Amino acid sequence: MEVKNCSGDIRDIVCMPKELKLKINPSEVLTFNKDNSNGYNELMASLTFINDYKDPIAFKIKTTCLVKYKVRPSTGTLMPQESIKVTFVLNGMSIKQTDVMRDKFLVLVIPVGDPKDIAEMWKVQWETKEQHILKCKIFNENETVNTWNSYDQNHNNDLEQKVDRLMKVVTTLEMSNRVLSQHMRYVKFSLYIILLMCLFAFGFFWAVFYHK
């Protein structure tokens, strides 16, 4: 999803903040290559995440096609100027280039203070988090830049719709979790009140019968 940032540049990022916290190298395009170094014939890609912010940050990685990919690690925290290598594994060797180019990854980033409160901070900062969209492709020596750009232009609407649907699902799940948490607190409070009332009633009847 292409939007303009404050300087007028166009990048594949949603809700771009004034100061980017996460730097991604070498680019925001995942190029999958054949790899059999671990004894398995797999298609793999890797990127380096760098915390280019003054404070620690946390990241999450989501995808439009969960069953097709493995991500290691898919979540984590980075101290200022700390970096981490993230590996993406494509399941299956017979997947077509056009199938992979429809897929995208969504990288969510938030600044964190206390690492113990990361789960709560994801809820609080959900609307202001930094988001990067990573495109996917399979390395092909015969591929030309024009082919990639042409395909990307033709399928841009389809990719945007997938990302929008993913964001709506994630937002709905976050809201449902928040409502459920509030409901659980209400249930606990109600049970506590009922327990106090039972104890009070028991004490009252015990006092009445005891004095008789």
TrEMBL record:
Residues 21-140 form the MSP domain. It is found in: Membrane. Keywords: Membrane, Transmembrane, Transmembrane helix. The keyword Membrane applies. It holds the Pfam family Motile_Sperm. Its main location: membrane. It is a single-pass type IV membrane protein. GO terms for cellular component: endoplasmic reticulum membrane; plasma membrane. GO terms for biological process: endoplasmic reticulum membrane organization; endoplasmic reticulum-plasma membrane tethering. The chain crosses the membrane at residues 189-209. Belongs to the VAMP-associated protein (VAP) (TC 9.B.17) family. This is MSP domain-containing protein. It comes from Aphis glycines (Soybean aphid).
